[in-house]
Structures are given as C-alpha cells and as structure tokens.
Amino acid sequence: YRPPFIAGHSQTGVTNTDDFICLMFKGCIQMGIVPDLDYLLDASPVDYVSQAIVYLSRQKQSLGKVFHLQQPQPMHLRWFVDWVRSFGYPIQLVSYEQWQEYLKGYIRSPEHPLYTLLPFLFEKWSSEQLTIPELYLQKRRPKISCHQTLDALFGSGIVCPQPNSEVLDIYLSYFIESGFLSVDDLRNISKKMTVLSEV
User: Fold this and answer.
1) Given a cut of 60, is residue 198 above it in pLDDT?
2) CA distance from start to end of the chain
3) Could you read off the pLDDT of 109-164 as tens digits, one per residue?
4) InterPro entries in the record, alphabetically (predicted)?
5) What is the residue extent of each domain of the chain?
6) Euclidean distance between CA atoms 26 and 180, whole angstroms
7) What is the reported pLDDT for 146?
C-alpha cells in the first residue's frame, strides 16, 4: 500500500498540521507569495486512504498486488493559488528563485513554519544540482498509476474525494478553528506585498 501525501479528513478537516503540505501552506500564506512551479499536489484524504487500505487488505484478490493510493485527480498548484485568491487574499506567484531569495531574508526564527524545511528547499542534488522541489516538477516526476487500486475498489463505495473548493473550504476552516492558521495570517498578506519589490 503506497500512499502519496496524506491530507486531512475530507469531512472534518482534521489533519496533521506538522506535515510538509500544511507547513508549506502556512509559510506561503504568511509571506504572501508562492513559487510558480509546474507541480501537481498529489494528496489523498486520510479517510480515503485508511478505508481503502482496510478494505483492500481483507480481499483475497489483493494478495501479491501493489496498490498506489494516489489522488486520481491531483490539483495543480496554480489552481490552488486561484482558490486562495478567491477569498480576497492577494497571494502572488513568483519564480522559484525569487521565492528562495525572499525566504533567505524572511525566515529568521525557528518558530517560522518553513524553518525546518530549509534544507529540503535549498540543498541541491543530482548532477544537475537541483533542489528536491525542482526534481519533482511534472516533467521530471515518475508517472504512477492508481488504476489497479481504483479497479480493486470498484463497487466498494470507497471513492477518493476530489480536491475541489468544498473540500479545501473544510481544510481551511479546520486550520483557523484549531489555531494553526489565524485570520490575521490571511489578512496581513497585502501588508507584505511591498517587500516583493525589494527582492
């Protein structure tokens, strides 16, 4: 059973706010900028992943098979940014290099959500000397199929929720209600836009 990033519960929004996606979301919201990368957010809700594993593990036909629990309809990063903007928050897309330069001057405290991710975001790998996010752009990512999983789940009633506005609204509500993200984090984005002209 090979899950992708595991997102929060699609009905309640409850999630692990210390994972990569949540920390990136909060960090980018606080800065008001997102790196403009050709990247699909492949994350499946935890309720889907857990239900699928329990069901598949109890089927004799599953023996010896590999099941990828990828999101069948992953969300592009740019669509996600448009969703954030739909709430009236002027978050901006900037080049990856510009985003990195801004990070260097912006993150000064271990309390910042992106602080622990700095090695991941800056260290370069492979003969091409690319960061991990650059190595996983769509043109470089291995193509993983979840068709075998979907076929095995057919008729079970277990379906992976699409990452649409309804589900994202649930996640955002949980972030705010749990205190992970404050309303001020969202409202203060516009106050930081002037910094971009200095990057």
Assistant:
1) no
2) 43
3) 898 999 999 998 999 888 889 888 888 888 888 888 999 999 999 999 999 999 99
4) FAR_NAD-bd (IPR013120), NAD(P)-bd_dom_sf (IPR036291)
5) 5-193
6) 8
7) 95
